[in-house]
Design goal:
heterodimer, A: about 260 residues, Rossmann fold, 6-stranded mixed beta sheet, 10 helices, B: about 350 residues, mainly alpha, ABC transporter involved in vitamin B12 uptake, BtuC
Amino acid sequence: MTSLKIKSLSVKYGRHEAVRDFEENVRPGEWLCLIGPNGAGKSSVLRAIVGLAPHTGSVTIDDTPVKSRSVRRRAQLVAYVPQVPLLPDSMTVHEYVLLGRNPYVVGFSNESREDFMMVEEVLRRLDLVGYSRRELSSLSGGERQRVVIARALAQEAPLLLLDEPTSALDIGHQQQALELVDRMRREHGLTVVSAMHDLTLAGLYSDRLSLMHQGVVAASGPAESVLKAETLAEFYGVSATVHTDGDGTVVVIPKRSDTARGS
Amino acid sequence: MVTTAIFQRHWRLPAAMLVLLVAVVVGASIGPAGPPAWRVPLELINRLPLISFDSGVTSTEWNLIWQIRMPRVVLAGLVGAMLSTAGAAYQGVFRNPLIDPYLLGVAAGAGLGATIVFTVNRAGTSSWIVDPLPLTAFVGGLGAVALTYLVGTAFGANRSSATLVLAGVAVTSLATALQTFILQRNTDVVRQVYSWILGRLSSATWSDVRLVIPYVILSLGALLIHRRLLDVLRVGDDEAKALGVNVDRVRLIVVLAATLGTAAVVAVSGLIGFVGIIVPHAVRLVAGASYRVVLPVSLVAGAAFLILADIPGRILDNPAETPIGVVTAFLGAPFFLLILRTRQVAE
């Protein structure tokens, strides 16, 4: 299992500072969830870890700085699912999942037998075998999300980064996708860092939440300590009730304002 | 079963090769002069090792076939293969199906180079051992692309492909403007320059073939080994990077290789339009969009296409030939509109 250490990470796009002095220590096998309002810097943190955002500070995976690794080696360690993955219309599910094996293909050769077997294995685990020849454009939203996760899993990276993995899905498929990630995490010992908007789901599936606001971490810890009505009001500007279920699930319910209710 | 899915399209390459063989034989057989067309295939078989019979083709006629028609067929094949493969590769690295190999200014630069040769002193160069025209066109083409790259990377801080394409547009306009300016002052060479620009294979010799072949082989080789990586690029720069591809390096190498090959063939054949768009798209329609298939099949099909497209030019308006560029444009323009209509097929 893989640990992730981030020290004084700052992300700048031109003069705009998206993330400032972000510190984090993700334990092996932990699921950390970044929450926070739009523009808080969640995606930028994920993009910096995978090397897509210009940043300063250090990102260390298993005690080796990411910057000292080759692009290919880094891709063997970190799998990244962007908020809106680009799915080429006429590509088949099998071709797409096979892309996840790219970090293991040496030089200008082709995928090996093992690579093809790994893809078949992933398709089997995710119940996608029947889809392998389907074109990506013919899939529904839930199927697409599963295929994207399949590609990330085919990458066999111990660290999985998910940017809003459920934002385009209905409540049933949200649960399905997160259950899938959770199952894979347990079965393969993955370390997961995700950015999410649904606070209840974030608290439900992750081990720890990190609330970001304007590029800085405002609060961090287990769901019951981060998801408090006052905290949410301060950083999201939302008026909400936080309710804890009998099993410890923290539920966030937005409140309708009294004036609206009165009219 | 799943493993074989990706190999199922492999019959397309042998099929394309068969078409190419037919195109070569037809190309060698048809022409305004020489022996009856049906005798030529017989003679070609006769020329194979270990086979000998009388095909009724005299040695003078064979000379005509070998010295006049064959270089033309081979050159058409090389040019067609190069433009089609370069077109497919450009479409891959820029993720835009409507891009052709002339995108970054090769054509305009080569045209400018050729115009300069024609205006400076074309008659004076006739005694030179090496014709400076292809060389100047080659240098002009490469120079224009180098300028495009400099401008595109200097102003596009993140080196996005869009800035490069826009720089190509600007450089093309600049080169065309310079060319027009020069032509305005030398109206006597307008006809020669335009006939060069429209493209010609009619004057092809074996020395033209020898001139381009090293560049074409080098370029095609470099493009073909990148075909799997072009498939990874289909998911976009960011995701390709996250999948371990050095996107900037791959794009640079592919663009350089495609440009080098294109500049070389433009230098000997002039500007033959639409080949780089028609062929890869036709290939995608029958063989799918994976670059592992599109690149090699486009190479072979492109060679066959241009050899065949060169044939009507020999017969129409005989003995004054129809330029090959006009033939491909006639075929290409309607095809281009068809692609625009059914763009989703080509991703």
